[in-house]
Amino acid sequence: MKQLLLTLGILLGTFYAAAQDARGYSFSLEEAVTFAIDSNYTAINARRDIAKAIKQKWETTATGLPQLSANIAYQNNLKQPVTFIPAEFSGGEPGTFTPVTFGTKQSASATATLNQLIFDGSYLVGLQAAQAFLDFSENAAEKTNLEVRKGVINAYGSVLLSEELIAIFEKNKENLEQNLFETRKIYENGLTEQESVEQLEITLLDIETQLSNAERMASIARQMFNVALGIDVSAPVIFEDNLSDLAQEHIELSFLDTSINVEENIDYKIAYNLTEQRSLELKLEKSKALPTLSAFINYGTAANSDEFSFLDSDQRWFQSSVLGVNMNIPIFSSGMRSARSQRAKIALEQAETQLEETEQNVRLEVNTAKSDYLFAIENYENAKKNLALAERIENKNQIKFVEGLSTSFDLRQAQTQLYTAQEQYFQAMVQVINTKATLETVLNTPQLRPDFEEIKDKY
């Protein structure tokens, strides 16, 4: 029955997973970010790193708690050792020796020992180091979440961009095919030159090539998005947001006035963790000059016999117990401890210099990200105006070409200018979204610190 229930559970799980893949997913941008932070492969392992740090902290703590061990031994002297004693002890001739065998052939013993660390400077430092490593793991996981968020936003925008490009290329192709059809009819009637047809054919070939490339890139962009979310690359996904609305939502000039507390930046936190660890390493080396004190108590019992009678009720067992205290006092190390302490001090100074450098780099990154974001907004506004101008120019050249007032070369130039403006317009939208995500990452906005208690309960 247990095997049957287990098999049914596996089949139901497989059926559910298959149904989920068949049904696919549907995400707004914010929903995709929330999903990825929970399911992204890197984010999952970052949470496991925290769980490992939690276990390591307890491992370090447990070394200073009572340690109980037991030992059970059995010996069978297949050939008992022989000892020579002076023969005169047993009435023999003086100057000669008599071989004698001492003890029984078999023996058994059982001992339990309780050890307790009383004082060790390195243990106290180890506890602090375990906590520092846990803090580092949490900060590393938070940085991972921020990078996952930025990656999902970039991937989401790339998919929407590829879909917009496909749509505009298909529309342009349709318009060009209609223009080419009409121009061929005009040429067949002898009202225009063959060059006019050929110019349109060249433009159409370019559009078809770009359309094919956009379709391939759309497929790759979707797969990259799925990997960023931690789902199967072939799983179908519906994107609920559109590029234009997202771009408008991400235009927030007031966000440029946001100031940063450098200590809240995740890179600064990680650099500070490194400084803290180097400081503890210095304390550890200094603590090795202190004495260590530990105590133990054991209790044992032993029995001897020429036959294996240790399980018999009349077998005699002899008890023993020892209580002791050990103190280890470092006296002279030929300068080894001093050299180690000096090396740790130099490493601490290096970490402090790196921390100062990180602080300056964070301020630079914030200013750079704000500049890039402002440029992206300005570029988007310009791209919108350029697109409107390019549409008007192309429309005028269409009319002139039909009326015979301009050449096919002029028309192709206007069309190429329009297609370039269209691409730049959509790319400017994505740039606004991505640069804002970069600025938010530097500012550590929003807060994406992992849930410590949830991780602790899970593992």
Write a short abstract of this structure.
The protein is α+β, with helices and mostly antiparallel strands and 459 residues long.
Order of helices and strands: HEHHEEEEHHEHHEEHHH
Number of strands: 8
Mean pLDDT score, rounded?
90
- In terms of per-residue confidence, which ranges show pLDDT below 50 for 5 or more consecutive residues? 14-22
Largest sheet: 4 strands, antiparallel
Strand order of the largest sheet: 2-5-7-8
Query: How big a fraction of the residues is strand?
Result: 5-15%
Spatial separation of the terminal alpha carbons:
30 Å
Percent helix, as a range, is 55-70%
How large, in whole angstroms, is the Cα Rg? 40 Å
User: What does the overall shape look like?
Assistant: elongated
Query: Structural class, judged by helices and strands?
Result: alpha+beta
Explain what you see.
The protein is an alpha+beta fold. The chain has ten helices and eight strands. The strands form three sheets. A four-stranded antiparallel sheet has the order 2-5-7-8, with no helix packed on it. A two-stranded parallel ribbon has the order 1-6. α3 runs antiparallel to α4. The longest helix has 68 residues, at 121-188.
